[in-house]
Amino acid sequence: MIDAILKTFKITAQHSGVSTGLKWLPANGDTLTSSSPVDGKVIATIQAASRENYDAVVATAQEAFHEWRMWPAPKRGEVVRQIGEALRRNKQALGKLVSYEMGKSLQEGYGEVQEMIDICDFAVGLSRQLHGLTMHSERPGHRMYEQWHPLGITAIISAFNFPVAVWSWNSMLAWVCGNVCIWKPSEKTPLTAIACQRIVEEVFAANQVPEGVCCLVAGNRAVGEWMANDTRIPLVSATGSTRMGKSVGSAVGARLGKSLLELGGNNAIIISQDADLDMSLIGAVFGAVGTAGQRCTSTRRLIIHESVYDAFTAKLVKAYGQLRIGNPLDEAVHVGPLIDQDAVAAYLDSIEKVKQQGGTFLVEGGQLQGAGYESGCYVKPCIAAVQNFYEIVQHETFAPILYVMKYTTLQEAIAMQNDVPQGLSSAIMTLNLREAEQFLSQAGSDCGIANVNIGTSGAEIGGAFGGEKETGGGRESGSDAWKAYMRRQTNTINYSTHLPLAQGIRFDL
Ligand code: UN1
């Protein structure tokens, strides 16, 4: 299976990880090894970018920008439309590669490619709607308006958990806005990035898109640091851990560049006494174990009303007993592996900390061993009863560990939901309108995403995606997130025969 997919995307056993669009550069940086957490096998090795490769890519991208920004936005949208078509044709192959290289279930692999297709459609429409406002000038014979211009190079740093979709949210919007992109994919998932580059290169060749509009620079942390410190790059969009985001954000901030940060979450669902418990169960379990708990939006905490706590946790324990953990390419499987053994170690360490800090397990965790689990990356989703203030509960562990806790009043539940450093996604399960509205009010959830009767994960692309506090404050994907990829310009035009000054100032010569 994997050989056929690699062939589809023309990925060889040793592949350059540096491209400016159609040209693959002879890369001479570190060697990255892509191995699958599914079976532990090495899929291919990738030559990462050296500093010299990186500088060559930036120079090509800078030049491409001068041409690309002059293409009418709807023409850029037409190119993105064709990328969407190419993704439709390649959905199976790319979805499977995502599943095999990253370890998420096949359905989620396809779902991720679907998000890419959806954002292409969104960006195509957007390419005719990048509009500003007009306003009334205080001076006679004057017109005032604002318009949006592209920024230049957009650097995209993406994480392993959504190895391709998050790149597409950024690049498709950045392109219709007239920017050129340089992508540093996660060093854990370089092959899916190469596959995307292959899909784009065909479309770009057919449309004579200038070399340098879609660039790839595979590499490790150093490449991200070059980008963050590079004054030739006006915007760095980074998705990943809060630690990484603080380092990127402060380097970009020190040079007064723009950064768009989408960092960790510590997402909770409040399960009210007025919740539909069966529906809540699906949202909670999918949120906690989907993608093996490796989404930014994964459900980490359930804040459950004391009157339904026993009934709901009993349902949870039963549901966890039915989970099938194994090869994610098998469509009957719910939970695949973690990304690598370091992630397993972090998961085991968190379980120890939960115990040390006073938590008790309703469903025990642990690493799985034996047939089918040879890669050493498979773990058991687990549930622990905890207190919200435990240090480990305040921390985002990228693994399927679900914390449950009790509340008495809604106010208390909302305070617990907000009392973590992160602020990405949140939800309340309730059929009570008053509760739902309080949760959504300014005194409610402090997160970028707040849902009612939906879990915390699985956001649609049409909304702005991102969160507050340590989540970084950036918004990607839908709504008016495109504005982050453009610069705003206010224009005042005088069509009168006089030059009146604003604020009524007289300046007679
Ligand atoms: C992420 O985990 O970085 O809402 C993105 C979701 C997906 C995207 C998650 N649409 O779960």
TrEMBL record:
Official protein name in the record: aldehyde dehydrogenase (NAD(+))
Boundaries of every Aldehyde dehydrogenase domain copy: 24-490
Quaternary assembly: Homotetramer.
Pfam families, A to Z: Aldedh
Keywords: NAD, Oxidoreductase
Family to which the UniProt record says this protein belongs: Belongs to the aldehyde dehydrogenase family.
PANTHER family per record: ALPHA-AMINOADIPIC SEMIALDEHYDE DEHYDROGENASE
EC number, UniProt record: 1.2.1.3
Active site: E262
Enzyme class, first EC level, given as a word: oxidoreductase
Segments forming a coiled coil: none
